């Protein structure tokens, strides 16, 4: 199963990614000023993925990627795929797992993992 992950960018905007069941990022959203915008977009994608358009593109180096859009508005851009087969596999994974995916919110955590020095200092105090 895949998952959506909400995080905060350095400039204070919010974004979300959709990661595969193996933890690899499949696509990254556009920047959002409010976390609630991310949450609404995730719900819209989760509930209506079949109504979204996947626009296929190629980089100058020949790699494939897609833009996820609704009514002409691009909401996310995928990672780069080396082959058309892996590109198709990525889209199939989205269609299969997005409707049942969970959402993780890391936007309030500055550091998900504590600093190693802090862990050692706390251990020494015990």
TrEMBL record:
Xref: Gene3D superfamilies: 2.30.29.80
SUPFAM superfamilies assigned: YegP-like (SSF160113)
One Pfam family matching this protein: DUF1508
Residue stretches making up the DUF1508 domain: 61-104
InterPro entries given in the database record: DUF1508, YegP-like_sf
Protein name: DUF1508 domain-containing protein
Organism encoding this protein: Flavobacterium album
